Amino acid sequence: MVVSRKLLVAPTQTFQVLVRAQTTAPHVRQGLKPWTEIPGPTNIPFLGNFLSVRAPGVEPRAWNFHRLGWHLGDRFQDMCRLEIPLRSPYVFLFTPELCEKLYRSIGPRPIRPGFSALDHIRRRDPTFTNAKGLLTSQGEEWYQFRKKVQRPMLNPMSVLPYHRELQLVADEFIAKKIHRQLDENSEVPDLFLDDLYKWACESVCVIALNQRVGCLEVDLPPESEQLKIINGVSTILKTTADLDNGIHFWKYFPSSSFKAFTEACDIFKETCFKYIHKSLEEIKHKPHTADADKTLLEQFHDRGCDEATTVVMALDMIFGGIDTTSHTVAFALYNLAMNPKTQETVFQEIKSVLPEASSPIPQSIDKLPYLKAVVKETLRVNPAAIANARTLSDPLELNGYLLEPGTNVVPFHYYIMNCDRFVEEPKAFKPERWIKGHAEFENIHPFAALPFGHGVRMCIGKRFAEYEVQVMLMKLIRKYRVEWHHEPLGMKIHTLSFPSKPLRFRFFPR
């Protein structure tokens, strides 16, 4: 049974980080159990318990970690402990209440683990000496970088200069990658996901670089710069999944995965830098623009951001903006195809603001609450990131246990968002649950579904990602009815979630 969110939200002031005790056994004095007593899989001497993570019928591979993690949640209910040799311990959280307590206990400079290999490379690359970016920096270094870029990135008006161009990108995608490629069954080719990557790359480059880069050109050669960017991101994400898990021997003995990762990082960086520096040169010679029409790069420039900060921010926007948005659109289309009534409801809403398929999208899409709910429900069922993570700087009491500084705490939101302990009918695709006034809205704990993270370390590009996805779905659903006539589409993990099989959608003109 799901309990009302009003009853679950405890006062913020009750969630305090425990002051480090001045005793060798703080848990004894405070009546708390040590973190080593948190339940977890069976320990293997000298190897910890990470290798004991198993689930019936699930292959123990990184791409199945959402299913393995689900099994841990079902088995241990509230939280569990995982240990990896030569690594700080991990504590997984499986309830929204514990997630809330963690997030509210973290200070203004949260430490987020992950992307260890990327951090390793950037620390040794002179390019990143003065700006490592938001992905890999921590503490004061992260705080100072974010302070420089957050105002333009979080301003609701910052999406407006890209409004028209993002529509043109979506229109070109539909014309070239759907209309021209449908077979006799109105089905797109098996490589449709690759085409979505091209759309996402073109869209994020419009935002990060204020220029088109030609990702939607027909028959791009494999050695093209556009595919170097797209394939570079794909390789980085796939190899990151291998490198971040387990013991980091690659720091001392470079593995084949680390070599592939390094090569992909170099190619991605050098290719993107060509476009970024071109955009910066154009800004220097561009006539004055009204504040409302200024792009992100112009806003960074006007706010006095140094070139290193601007370049790295643009680079990270491209890196983080391809697989995330393309996979979200893919899963949204699948969920709509499998739920025709829901698709019809969102179509009627879109039609109310786009009388014709060729009608331009209005600048404000606030009148489309159901479309926004479709995106949010998609991110509940198929989140881009299945979990979040924080590394503790101070001791923290959770659920009667004392967690030590350095512990990696992982709110496993994929489990929480899809568990009937916290969400009514979790297997049903019901966008209505996210609309204020609906009966289920009040029953969802506000810390259950956080697909973009929480607090100051939440995804800084959230607003742009949502806008891109909404524009694409508006264009697609207004023009086509989408269907799926194959085996169910699953989800796998390579750092981020991705569709488990080719996207063989059928599109029928309305």
From TrEMBL:
One of its GO terms (molecular function) is monooxygenase activity. Heme binds at C459. Keywords: Heme, Iron, Metal-binding, Monooxygenase, Oxidoreductase. Pfam families: p450 (PF00067). Its cofactor is heme. Gene3D superfamilies: Cytochrome P450 (1.10.630.10). Belongs to the cytochrome P450 family. PANTHER family: CYTOCHROME P450. This is Cytochrome P450 CYP3020A1. It comes from Tigriopus kingsejongensis.
